[in-house]
Each structure stands twice: as C-alpha cells, then as structure tokens.
Amino acid sequence: MKKSLIACIFAMGMAFAHHSMEGFDRAKNVTLVGTVKQFKWANPHSWIELEVPNDKGGVDTWNIEMTAPFVLVKAGWKSTSLKPGDKVTVVGHPQKTGEPGALFVSVTTADGQTLTDRPPAPPAAK
Amino acid sequence: MKRFGITTAATAALFAMALGANGQAPAAAEPAQLGALAPANIKKDRPKPGFDITGTWLHAFSRDNPFTFAPPPDFKLTPAAQVHYDAAKKARAEGKAYHDDIGQCWPAGLPVIMTRVWPIAMVQKPTAIYMISGFMNSVRIIYLDGRKHTDPDIIIPSFNGESIGHWEGDTLVVDSIGFVDDHHWLDNGIPLSDKTHIVERMRLIGDGATLEIEYTISDPKDWVGEWKWTKRWKRVDDTDITEASCLPDLNAHMPSVTSKSVNIH
Q: What is the ipTM of this complex?
C-alpha cells in the first residue's frame, strides 16, 4: 500500500500543487547560488526564501515554491534540512516573467548533499 | 411586576400555557431533525449500509483517471459561461492562469475537492459520512439519516454544497445542491453556480481497496444538459491527513500565485 501511495504521488509529477503552475517555465532550469533566509516546513506547501547576489552588487530574494512536507519526508527531508544562513545551490524552474521566483527542483548543501522532492531510486535488483 | 412591558398576569398566563392543563411540564418533544451525531439518531433502526467507507483515500491519478473534470467533447456552454471559457483559453495560450481562485485561498469546492493530490479522511457513521480533505481540511458531510434537503429559502450556500445520500444496494447515491454562486469552478474557465446539481453514485470495488464514483453534474446557468465522469480513489493505509491552512504568508512565498503578470482575476 505504501508503494501505491508513493506511486500515485510521483506519477502526478508537477501536478502536485494546489493551484495553477502556468507561471513557471518547466522546460527551463535556473541555478541559484545563495544563502537561505528562511526554510518553511508547512502545509500545504513548503518554501525556501533564498538571498542571491545579483549583478548590480545587491541581493535579490527568491521565493522557491515547494511541494507538501509529507512528500518531502518520503524524499528524505526533515524540518531541519535547511536553516537560515546555509550556503546552498538551488535548481528550479524559473518564472516566465523573469521575476525572482522558481518552482523547486533540487538543493545542494555546502557539504555536497543533494535533496529533491522525489524519493531515492530503489536499489537495483541483483 | 411589569418588566419589559409584560405584566404579572400575562406572565402567569404564559406559564400556564407552557405547563399544560394538568400543571405538569410536557415531555421535551424530539426535534424535527436530530443532529447526525445525536446518539438517539445513530441508534435508530436502519437497513444495513452497502459498505463502510471509513479510511483514508487518495485520488488514483492516471491518464484515464485525471484530476480534472473536463467537459465532454460536444459540450455547449451558456453565453455567460462561454465568456469565461474563451478568456481562459486565451490566457492559457499566453501562458497565464485565469481565475486561479484556489491559488488565492478560495475553497476548491465539490467536485474538485475530491480529486486534489492530498488524501481525504472519510469516517462513516450510520447517520452520515464525514470527509475531511488533507487539502485545507475542507469538510464535507453526506447525511444518511433520511433527512430531506434544506428549504431553498434558508439553505446556506457553500462550496461543498449540501449532500444527502441513500443506499441502493451496495451503491450510495448522493445528491448535492446548495452551492455558492461565484469563485467556484468545475474546470479552467468553466464556472459553477448556485444552480449546480451533483449526483454521485459511490461503490467500493476490488475488495474495498478502490472507491469508484460516477458523477452526473448539471448547471443550467453555465451549460446545457448533464455531464458525466467516473473517478477512482485508492485506499491508502500508510498515511493520515494533517492540518493545512491557506495563510497569507503561504501565498506571499508562492510565486505561482503572487505574480500579477501571470494571474488574471
């Protein structure tokens, strides 16, 4: 039964949201190197606020839209996976408008650990 | 004694009427409609229900069982609804969202609330089924205690409507009316009105592991005739629903719903 829930959830792919996803360009990825300002562990969606240096010498605050925590748990996340001040690299689908916002794909922390919103692949059969 | 314009004599007359001719207080009459959770209602003799739906259910998304309630190929909208449909089509072509009210914290409402990607907890009593969605904890109640729909003059419009069910063998037939007249959508650009009428035929199949619902929906304010779909849910025994609220700080951090240039309201 557990497999069926996970299969259902991940078959949904990017449909896993409570609203329209028209605003994101899901054919593109943007890579953001920055500092976590906030990581919110909340229903129905978690999010990351990421401070990213811009080419004008300032900092842009990006909102990274994530899925629900119960999905993230199955992908190995904890509420403590990110904390303010963490230096991270986030990959996301950017907004079509160019505004500083993205739909979460993955994050890589300073110690090299990468987290996505999908569970790790099962070990290959011997 | 005279308080608030009532004399002592009038007060005595009122007491006499309340006590009755023998001076004894009459036994409390049973309310016209007992609440669904009133023990006296639950204990009433009723035919055996066709199934027990109690459990946690998740819409079983697949290509032939989509989340959406798309219109049939030969659909015909009313002129008012056609305006919305055309505007939504244009918005999609421009990569924009049209009236994404759910994203703005409006309830999804029936039937869309049934096919969200969060599980639904369902608890069945002899008198009612309580459904709580893991999406915004939206509550839906299906009354099974034989009551009729509320008088249209006093029914309180809601997004999930008023649902009354009756058993036809192993099928629960649920009739729902009493919906709100705005911010409620069947599909992108297809509104639902206060004239919406939803009939669901619910069955448990596959040893009770699958819930199947046949939908028949009409809304004469928005389209001509009845539209039908069949949807399926899987029992998911390894999860529970959790508290979920649409809060201001949620949307402030969701680029998909805050971008003014993408969302058309």
A: 0.70
